[in-house]
Design goal:
Helix content is about 35%, strand content about 15%. It is of the alpha/beta class and about 375 residues long. It has an eight-stranded mixed beta sheet with strand order 3-2-1-4-5-6-16-17, with helices on both faces. A seven-stranded mixed beta sheet has the order 11-10-9-12-13-15-14, with helices on both faces. A two-stranded antiparallel sheet has the order 7-8. The two termini are about 40 Å apart. The relative contact order is 0.14.
Length: about 375
């Protein structure tokens, strides 16, 4: 099986889809790996490092897209590149499937099977393939580091001859993978941390990290089978915002991570709440790429609201691009190895498998995911 990994063309992307160590693992399985020349240059990885791991190198992007049995990348492809893929090929990457039905249609028309890394089920067996979680973990860490860099006070308590400096107050909204890492990082840096989530089940996790869980009686809430928070009713959202407003006003840093899988992120922090914070405070909107949790946040910008900095940073994992590349490379390699046929020495689309059934979104010209079909019907 010929696997081709093209360079990422998305503006500002600093991550690499596969690293030499992963190439070596796949070659050992019997895969034929070809990378586009300069694939790792953005990370200072030479083509020679890939050839030493067993890959070949090509400068003919279009030609290799048309010859490969499987194309692996990080970002979703340009629509015009899908038509270059050969019929019967397999394509694996992030696809932003809930916002990219035109691409899914293009895969179907081209007769290409498409696997969306976002759709990897959140099961114990699939954890090692879960790229969303691995990248969110890094994003949670980076959010705290960036907030600390922009903040006008230190995070830890300090006792000095000149007096005692009290610890900064950090409030994390949304306790998923990113939120938990943000809590852990802020605590390690010495901040006083509190957190809120609509799922009461995460209270114990918050407390285990040494943070305070902000309780709000929202009535019946919960989470999906994949561990995502269920969408709140308008009445519940109002109750949530009223309770959070008090904590936000007293916080030096607010980090929002609240997202509803497959839908636009809910706005849960109003401009009025931001204005209630003291000048010099910082707000980081980790949901900015899916619509944003903060009303005044703007994608790719730092907005000043009455002296409060609101960060809408895109591609947070890309801020620690080497680790992000390592994790994504490992995720996709684990996926390939899990479905690698010993006899065929190829990646096999075992549709009856729970993991494959979840992430294989287009196959034999058809959109397979019922979740995506339902989202399309509502669009």
């Amino acid at each position: 099986m010929l696997i081709f990994i093209p360079k990422e063309l998305y503006p500002g992307e600093t991550r690499v889809a596969i690293l030499p160590d992963s190439v070596k693992r796949l070659v050992a399985k019997g895969a034929e790996i070809c990378i586009e020349a300069g694939l790792g240059a953005v990370r200072g990885i030479t083509d020679e490092a890939y050839t030493a791991a067993g890959a070949s190198v090509s400068g003919d992007r279009a030609g290799m897209l048309g010859n490969a049995d499987l194309v692996l990348r990080l970002r979703k492809p340009a629509k015009e590149e899908i038509s270059q893929l050969k019929r019967g090929a397999i394509h694996i990457s992030y696809l932003e499937p809930f916002e990219s039905f035109d691409l899914l249609d293009a895969f179907g028309e081209a007769g290409v099977s498409a696997i969306a890394m976002e759709m990897i089920p959140r099961t114990t067996l699939a954890q090692k393939m879960d790229a969303l979680s691995s990248q969110a973990n890094l994003a949670g860490y980076v959010s705290v580091i960036m907030a600390a860099d922009q903040l006008d006070v230190v995070l830890p308590m300090m006792m000095t001859p000149a007096g005692t400096i009290k610890p900064a107050s950090v409030f994390i909204i949304g306790v998923g993978v990113a939120g938990l890492q943000a809590i852990a990082t802020a605590k390690r840096l010495g901040a006083r941390v509190s957190a809120f989530d609509t799922r009461p089940v995460v209270e114990e996790q918050v407390q285990s990290l040494g943070a305070k869980f902000v309780k709000v009686d929202l009535g019946e809430t919960g989470q999906t089978k994949d561990g995502y928070a269920k969408e709140l009713t308008e009445e519940q959202r109002k109750m949530q915002m009223e309770a959070m407003a008090k904590v936000i006003a007293q916080s030096d840093v607010v980090i929002t991570t609240a997202q509803v899988f497959g839908r636009k992120a809910p706005v849960i922090v109003t401009e009025e709440m931001v204005r209630s914070m003291r000048p010099g405070a910082v707000v980081v909107d980790l949901a900015i790429e899916t619509g944003g949790n903060v009303a005044c946040a703007k994608l790719g910008e730092t907005v000043d609201v009455n002296g409060v900095k609101v960060l809408g940073v895109a591609n947070m994992p890309g801020r620690v691009a080497m680790n992000a590349s390592q994790m994504y490379s490992s995720n996709v390699t684990n996926l390939l190895e899990h479905f690698w046929g010993k006899e065929s020495k190829a990646f096999e689309l075992k549709i009856s498998d729970e993991i494959m059934n979840g992430c294989l979104v287009v196959h034999e010209g058809e959109l397979r995911s019922q979740m995506l079909k339902d989202a399309r019907a509502k669009a």
